[in-house]
Amino acid sequence: MTGDLRSPPRRIGPFAAVFLVALALSGCTRKVTNVDANYTAPEGQRSANARLIAYPDAPVPVETWTDLLPDGPGEEDTLLSTEQVSIAPGTLHGAILDGTPASGYQVLRRESNGGYAQLKDHVLNPVVRFLDSQWEIYAFSDARPSAFSPPSYLGRGVAAGVVTPTSPLTNASELMSPDIATLRYTGATAPNDSNLTMSWDAVPGAAGYWIQIYQFTGGGVEAILQSVQPAPFVLKDVRNFFIGYVAAPATGYRLGEPGAQVLMKRPLLYQVAYRVRVVAVSGRGELIAFSHGDWEHIREQGLYRRFRAGATVVTPKRPTR
């Protein structure tokens, strides 16, 4: 690939224009005023079951190739261009994982004077619920980050819209770098076991790794680009089979064994393809590495667009006797 994930975003082409406009509109936030500079310790109690992961909006390198016969990618095709497609340039994102009794979340952001203020003028509702474990995932975007450096966020749980001294607080998440490194997945892609043994290279500075095993159910440019963007999880158009966390220095995990905090698990079937995404997070609650995974492409007349899928496709095979 000729593109570089860390290079500045280039002009957005028609391939992604509709999606970018829609996402930019959805990411608007209220204007924050009259922030108390001394408000640096919001009311509530830190909970180990409330975790915040923050991450920048990293561009997705998209290649355009001629599609000569036979149809589909092949050695006969020619690379025409590489474009860095930004989903929402300059936006910062966050995911809150919650296993507390909270029914909603406030997002608090440190403003230029150092004080915390609510990012949104409403309480977040969960975007994903895991009924077996009683964990939930919340998501937010900040289209106009404050001038405070490093960008810092905190989640606070509420019950019936009320904040109390016992309201759960997440870790304070700090974005120390605009870059997200590459995490190399090293597990087998055709194992003779439906209880996958997953492995990856260690990431310097990682406190732990989140794993998502899923099938993508969406279609169209908008859904596909959102699903491949560097992020802890795919949260839309997805059927989940496993979500769990493994603390460093571990660099692997086998389904069904101890050693991971499991938010949800469904059995995997033989001869069925699944996507495996692994990301590394730091002790500051920052997404620092992402498994870009296998190549994926979208065909058009005489052309195809090629990009990384954001996951490795793994297909369990029946054990040989």
Structure description:
With 321 residues, the chain is mainly beta. It has two domains: 17-174, no CATH class; 181-314, Sandwich (Immunoglobulin-like). It contains two helices and 23 strands. Strands 13, 15, 16, 18, 19, 20 and 23 form a seven-stranded mixed sheet that branches. A four-stranded antiparallel sheet has the order 2-5-9-8, with no helix packed on it. Strand 6 (104-110) and strand 7 form a beta hairpin. It is globular. 37% of the residues are buried. Mean pLDDT is 88; it is low at 1-12 and 16-29.
What's the structural blueprint in terms of helices and strands?
Blueprint: H1 17-26, E1 45-46, E2 50-56, E3 60-66, E4 79-85, E5 92-98, E6 104-110, E7 116-118, E8 128-130, E9 135-142, E10 152-158, E11 168-169, E12 173-174, E13 181-182, E14 197-199, E15 206-216, H2 220-228, E16 238-247, E17 252-254, E18 261-265, E19 274-282, E20 287-290, E21 295-300, E22 303-308, E23 312-314
Parallel strand pairs: 1-11, 13-20
Antiparallel strand pairs: 2-5, 3-4, 3-22, 5-9, 6-7, 6-10, 8-9, 10-12, 14-17, 15-16, 15-19, 16-18, 19-20, 19-23, 21-22
Summarize the structure.
With 321 residues, this protein is mainly β. It has 2 helices and 23 strands.
First-residue to last-residue Cα separation: 41 Å
Q: Spell the H/E element sequence.
A: HEEEEEEEEEEEEEEEHEEEEEEEE
The poorly predicted ranges are 1-12, 16-29
Largest sheet: 7 strands, mixed
- The percentage helix is under 10%
Structural class: mainly beta
Shape verdict: globular
User: How many helices in DSSP terms?
Assistant: 2
